[in-house]
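fyi for ur records
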Amino acid sequence: MNDLVFITGASGFIGGKIAGRLLGAGRRVRVLARHPLPELDKLGAEVVRGDLADRAALQQGCAGAGTVFHIAGRVGVWGPEADFFRVNVDGTRHVLAACRATGVPRLVYTSSPSVVYNGGDLAGVDESAPLCTQAPCAYPTSKAAAERLVTAAHSRELATVSLRPHLVWGPGDRNVVPRVLTLAKKGRLRIIGAGRNRVDCTHIENVVDAHLLAESALANCHLLSDNSFSSSGDCHLIGDKAPEAAGNSGVGGRAYFITNGEPVVLWDWINELLRGAELPEVTRHVPVRTAYALAGVLEALWSLLPLKGEPPTTRFVVKELATDHWFNIAAARRDLGYAPRVTMAAGTAGLIEYLRHGGA
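which gave:
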């Protein structure tokens, strides 16, 4: 397997951790970045300046790479739909085109469980759940459209797989836990509904593991002949074991939920973090209907008036905080050999220790 990898989104949490792990293992790493990345530069990464709209930079990054980890994208719950689709969909299209133009054999795409958003509880759903076409914000629909592109791109020349890590957290997180802590410090956290909804969270080390396992699964998934490449896009393994026994048959062109496999009661976990950070627990409740209606009003105000930033809450956030969203990871265990190494208990204890010693 070619040891050179190209990573988009290395300035972010997931991409930066993957780059660091690979560099630590002696792999050659090239990253796409709009700005200097001194930490990765010191570790030996090659930085290509550009973004997902820069086709020349993408081809420069892909040239000679054995694997592309496409992680970059626009995240968030607020903003013009066109911006999300330009970055997440058009950007993915440009990455795929660069892979084809330079002969990259493998692409691992970082998708999101929100691609199956349905407005209600998602309790133990698996990859058979349909991709969403409508949501209260553009992030889920744009990621779903991008995932469709990646799935359709799987071929003899370019093997692709999509991963859907859920609520990624851990030391170095600049989004999930810091946002919760900031709102708690401002006294703006409220339990939406009864507060007994269960969610899946995923420790960053497990997410990195999943990406590297996906790369290995694609690398081991040798295409034998025209007859062995089915119309569904499945690829088959060479070796003494039958594909079913080998464990990673048919990985190409698929998507996989990635979580810790330990659903938690969301608000219980949040309060555990708040206690660890020596902040008051959240005890006040707001009915779901009230919160959803208020979020709709706030969205309307931010859409009509020249208000800065984003609304204090949105309908999508209300739904995410009030419903179950945990997923069946049996397919990732079976096909990728994925087994979460860092448990919720160990990861939470480590994160609290990190925060107490000055972690941001």
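The radius of gyration is 21 Å. thats all i got for now
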